[in-house]
Amino acid sequence: MAADPSASPERWTDTSRSLHRSSSSAAREAREQARQQAKQAQAMAAQQQQAQLAYQAQQTLQAHQARGPRLPTRAPRPARPNRHRNYDDENSWACGNWFEFLLVVALAIILLVGALVLVLFWVLYYRQGFAWTENPTLEFNLHPVLMIAGFITFSGFSMLLYRIGRCCRRIYVKLFHTIFHALAVPCVVVGFIAVLDSHNLANPPIRNFYSLHSWMGFVTMGLFALQFVVGFFSFLILLCCENATAGFRASLVPIHATFGILTFMLAVATCLTGLTEKAFLTPGFKYVEWPEEAFIINALAMVLVGLAILLVYAVRRETFRVRVASIVSQRL
């Protein structure tokens, strides 16, 4: 068969190009369709996986609710208390709190020293000073001075240390608390001996333990001795096994603090009855005529009353105390 002379080479080239374009378009469409199918398959797989995870979570929750709450197998270990607790950063005070604290402490210190100064001035200026058994009248002057020094000044400073020692370790506060109470012991003992000697060596002898002042003094000395023994035993004897006795000593704190305040208040009341007795029963002293000595006695009595108010306020004031979280470690 003869070839068509009208079919030129250029016509064959155009035909092959159009065939190539049509085959390339079909391939692109096939690839795009395959890509869309792959995306749909991935989306369906992701949905199935999420549904499976949600089903597993629901099954786990139902099983946990059926079993009930899981109890811990072992109790958590309690935090070990700090043996030497500091007051730093325990209380964040405003300026008003610090002003109140410093004012109360400063007034208490002034009155504690002022009571001792007043009784010394009274005895040395108006009662002719001191003596021992060779002069029973002057020996009696040791009694008011030493009793106020022991029961009021030293005991008051010992109580106040528990509020002003905020920057010291607790062990040092306890140590100074014990030292001041120990300084009060010889004062009370010598003052008691002085009043007994002055009564027994007087001419004629004076009866002992007949007045309200003497009875109150007995009760005060008994409470003071009990407080000192309990505090000494708790601080020095039980300190050697601190961890084993921590709970017992912590339980003694409110009892010791309460009886300490009661002892101090009773000591103030005993001093007031003693001053009144001395003012009314001293021969030749006309208290009702208001001499200078009577003014000193009344001023001393008012200082003692102010101390009773201030020290109880300082000890019992809630903002002056440490945080409740550390009250367990606040022991004797």
From TrEMBL:
One GO cellular component term: membrane
Region (Disordered) location: 1-45, 64-85
Listed transmembrane segments: 101-125, 145-163, 175-195, 215-240, 252-275, 295-315
Main location: membrane
Cofactors demanded by this protein: heme b
Annotated ranges, domain Cytochrome b561: 107-316
The keyword Transport appears for this protein: yes
Annotated compartments: Membrane
A Pfam family hit: Cytochrom_B561
PROSITE patterns given in the database record: CYTOCHROME_B561
Keyword tags: Electron transport, Heme, Iron, Membrane, Metal-binding, Transmembrane, Transmembrane helix, Transport
GO MF annotation terms: metal ion binding; oxidoreductase activity
Compositional bias segments (type: Low complexity): 35-45, 64-76
Membrane-protein topology: Multi-pass membrane protein
PANTHER family in the record: CYTOCHROME B561-RELATED, NO EXTENDED MEMORY, ISOFORM A
Name of the protein in its database record: Plasma membrane ascorbate-dependent reductase CYBRD1 isoform X2
Organism: Frankliniella occidentalis (Western flower thrips)
